[in-house]
Amino acid sequence: MSDPTLCSLCPRMCRYACPVASGSADETATPTAMIQAWREAQAGRLPWKAAADAVSRCTGCMACRAPCEFDQDVPSMLYEARAEAWKNGAVPDGAQLLHKRYLDSGNPFGDDLHASLRAHAADGDFDRKGRVLFWPGCRLLHDAPADVAALMAIFRALGAHHISLPARTQTPCCGAPLRAIGDEAGFQVAIAGLQQYFNRQRTLITTSGDCLNAIREGYGSTGNEITAEVLHLSEYLLFFRDQVADLGKAAMDRLEQRDEKVPAVVVFDSCAIRRRAGRGDPVYDVIEAATGTRPTPFGISPDRTVCCGAGDFHDLRRPEAAAQVAEFATAGRAVPDGAWVVATDPGCIPSLRGALAGRAHVIDLVGFLVGWLGPAVTDGARSSAPAPTGLKADA
After folding, report:
1. By 3-state DSSP, what share of the chain in percent is helix, strand and coil, each rounded to 5?
2. Per-residue pLDDT reduced to its tens digit, 19-68
3. Which of 179, 294, 342, 364 is deepest in the core (most CB within 10 A)?
4. What pTM value is reported for the model?
């Protein structure tokens, strides 16, 4: 159990590990400052509005845990702090906007994500009897619904006919945005609408770090355990490693026939997947099976990853700070010409594309699978990823 007192009295031992404090030069973003603000508000010495603004600065990246002598779980404490600020009527502007969009549409983007998915997916992709659910998450549905549909065709080509998309009538958002902004009651309502649905599945697979951690940790923290097995997409694909390798060989054969080279693949280990969920290695394994080559990490090593600034919907709550964090994370890091940078969490894609514009093509694991394996099975389905030919850096 983490203790806020330890953070509020700490001499900022994690200061230089915090990507928000470093990237935005904001001392208020250090764990010590955020927890101090929370405790000052509890004591009546600081207005809750000021405290709410302070505790909104965390991306949940867990980088502060490595230098911490007490193994403090700062993101979990800040969920509690934001919830308390919310109950006291203190909600930062960015969180208010996100909340309004959620109330209007059931997701933080304000769009009809069901309509977006229906425009691309086939009727047979929804609610099959196989009891393995592919939960795209609202971010992927908003940014790349065509990729979600194309991935279903790849599943079938791999022999995974038992995987289905969420039912057409089911909300596409797990409630993670509400947890991130402190709307505890709203999060409970979201859980109530989804817990039984999730528990009817044998396995739930997703690429969303926000969904993965909200379902695995957030639901349980409210006493609503999920009995279904919850996996990152890459973990599930390792059951089909040989089939992925066969499709990957076909992709490489096409390149060879055209006298084109396999693009370099670099993995951006997103904090939510690597640090919080501890599930980064299978992404490397899947890409290696598909390309025949182990991808290289974007950071110094997979475990020493950097923060894209978008965790816990920080890019929707505080977009300017999120962009600064992404710039800080990518500055000075060499990326091979024409490389595909594959983020393990689609939440990082917008921030990374802004920071790496003109230097690399940034996609998530779904985009990689569709772009690399897809041409063999999707008959030219549209995708946010390029086919493995004629690769150009993002403009």
Report:
1. 55, 5, 40
2. 999 999 888 899 999 999 999 999 999 999 999 999 999 999 999 988 88
3. 364
4. 0.91
